[in-house]
Amino acid sequence: MALNMIINAALIDEIEDLEELHNLNIERRMLRDNSNPFDLPNTFFKKLFRFEKEMMLQIITIMSPFMRNSHYSNAIPIHMKILTAISFFATGSYQMSIGQDFNLGLSQAMVSRAIKEVSDVFNQHFLNRYIRFPTDLELNNIKRRFFEKFGVGGIIGTIDGTHVAIIAPSEADEDHPPAIYFNRKGFYSINVQLICDADMIIMNANARFPGSTHDSAIWASSAIKRHLHQKYEEGNHNSWLFGDSEDPYDNNDDYMDNDNLEENYENIDPVGENLLQEGRRIRNNFIRHNFH
């Protein structure tokens, strides 16, 4: 009899614990549903997400059909997954702090899963649609803008590399040994190659290489280089990327003998520093907004 009473008491306690946990999950779900980031002031909203509210609603609308919709009571709503991931992409904040923004109360693991799901959806369904190098017509407009602003013909973009600081990988990570991320400036980084147009819009970003990789090596393996070579072979002999001494002049003999380049070089020299300064400014803004 005494044993049965003890067992019954234990079962009652366990049931009460389960009910308490269930109620807690419901409260958390209500908290998430009631924590509407769109109620935030416009300036704070844009600081968190780098988008205006109207644009963010459009992003949520086009991405939502591709997101997993869970029916569990404690599941994160789809729009919150997207907002959480974009906040991380926009600010580069640590995942733990993002879960605490706009009163979500999300754990680091939940934030991490949201970031992965949104990243997978974007890469599978939207990457090639929205991220691409300009078409020939668009490049002609870019050349015109460079000429209007700087008096230089044939320029389709400024190119430069920048080192994005990272935490050194583990010594046990055989796929990412720390040594290859240690750059010549004395810290661990990823060397990011950026190409901007005349209005400082980023047309291409290559963040695949560790900090020890030289700018010239990144350019040598660049898909943009292969694309421009192909265009040159097809007869386009007046399209150039402008960079500093870290970005090598192509060793193709046809390029070296091109009269247009020599003529353009004389025009570039007086305004080259302005071009590079503008490129570095937008590069630094990109790094500050997306990696810090």
Could you provide a short overview of the structure?
The chain is of the alpha+beta class and 292 residues long. The protein has 12 helices and 4 strands.
Shape designation = globular
The gyration radius over C-alpha positions equals 26 Å
Could you spell the SSE succession in H and E letters?
Answer: HHHHHHHHEEEHHEHH
Low-confidence stretches are 2-12, 21-34, 251-258, 260-270
Reported for the largest beta sheet, the result is: 4 strands, mixed
State the end-to-end distance: 65 Å
Structural class of the helix and strand makeup?
Answer: alpha+beta
Q: Percent of residues in helical segments?
A: 55-70%
Number of strands: 4
- Spatial arrangement of strands, main beta sheet: 3-2-1-4
Count of alpha and pi helical runs: 12
Strand content: 5-15%
Q: Averaged pLDDT, please? A: 76
Word description of this protein:
This protein has a 4-stranded mixed sheet with strand order 3-2-1-4. It starts with a helix and ends with a helix. Helices cover 56% and strands 11% of the residues. The longest helix has 33 residues, at 2-34. Strand 2 and strand 3 (202-210) form a beta hairpin. It is α+β, with helices and mostly antiparallel strands and 292 residues long. Helix 4 (78-91) packs across helix 6 (108-125). The chain contains 12 helices and 4 strands; from the N terminus they run ααααααααβββααβαα. It folds into 2 domains: 35-127, no CATH class; 132-291, no CATH class. Mean pLDDT is 76; it is low at 2-12, 21-34, 251-258 and 260-270.
